[in-house]
Specification:
The chain has 243 residues and is α+β, with helices and mostly antiparallel strands. 25% of the residues lie in helices and 21% in strands. The chain contains 6 helices and 10 strands, in the order αββββββββαααααββ. The protein has a 4-stranded antiparallel beta sheet, with no helix packed on it. Strand 6 and strand 7 form a beta hairpin. Helix 1 packs parallel to helix 6 and helix 5 packs across helix 6. The two termini are 29 Å apart. InterPro entries: FPG_cat, FPG_N, H2TH_FPG, Ribosomal_uS13-like_H2TH.
Length: 243
């Protein structure tokens, strides 16, 4: 599943489509495609894992889910969920969720919890964490109402950087460790973005998919943890369990 930094990269790749008119819309997305015809894109935005293609009065939200892909000015040998055709260009989105948002985006999204947003607010994220004292860290870092844009890579790498065990409970963390967790989630998201752009992201992974702890030189534990049951890679020696 593409994480927030990958969606920011997609947003940047689509920036040149702002101001262009959609001449035709097709695909199997269950939306009213006729609403898009002859409409100009007013902005390309992102929130967490959502790509937002804005028009006057409504927005198309695209979520690439686990296996979604996209193509700019080229096609795959499969039917798109959504194809937007312009005068000389086209956008194709595959295996994704598409919906129309009619409300103003400010009423739908809280930009203060988006890890890569200029409006990100550490105090707001702390407030969200305090609401879920019994939540496991492996679930909290995947919760889009707390860390919008965070995914499994960010989860594993942030927990390793902060020496925190994924089965620790949010409410058991000392205040200093909560603050460290919040700041590291933000910092790693920008590191992720930089490395992804340079095509070197995997080279910088310390925990995600790794077999050996680079600090302790002992085998990592790999388990499917929490209510999310996503893969966790962690060291039982240097990642402390707060329970």
């Amino acid at each position: 599943m593409p994480e927030g930094p990958s969606i920011v990269i997609l947003k940047q790749e689509l920036a040149s489509f702002k101001g262009k008119k959609v001449l035709a819309a097709s695909g199997y997305a269950k939306i009213d495609l006729s609403r898009l015809k002859d409409k100009k894109i007013t902005a390309i935005k992102s929130w967490g894992k959502h790509l937002l293609i804005c028009f006057r009065g409504f927005t198309i939200r695209i979520h690439l889910l686990l296996f979604g892909t996209y193509r700019i000015n080229e096609r795959k040998n499969s039917n798109p969920t959504l194809r937007l055709s312009f005068e000389k260009e086209e956008l194709n989105f595959y295996t994704c969720a598409v919906r129309i948002i009619d409300e103003p985006l400010a009423e739908v999204y809280d930009w203060e919890i988006d890890l890569l947003s200029d409006a990100w607010n550490a105090a707001k994220v702390m407030k969200q964490l305090k609401k879920v004292p019994d939540m496991l860290l492996c679930d909290a870092l995947l919760n889009q109402d707390i860390f919008a844009g965070s995914g499994n890579i960010i989860k594993n790498e942030v927990l390793f950087r902060t020496h925190l065990h994924p089965l620790s409970k949010v409410g058991k963390l000392p205040l200093k460790k909560k603050k460290e967790l919040i700041q590291e989630a933000r910092q790693y998201s920008f590191d992720f973005l930089e490395w992804k752009k340079a095509f070197v992201l995997k080279q910088h992974w310390l925990a995600h998919t790794r077999k050996t702890c680079p600090r302790c030189h002992i085998p990592f534990i790999k388990e499917y943890l929490g209510t999310t049951q996503r893969r966790s890679f962690f060291c039982n020696n240097c990642q402390f369990l707060y329970e």
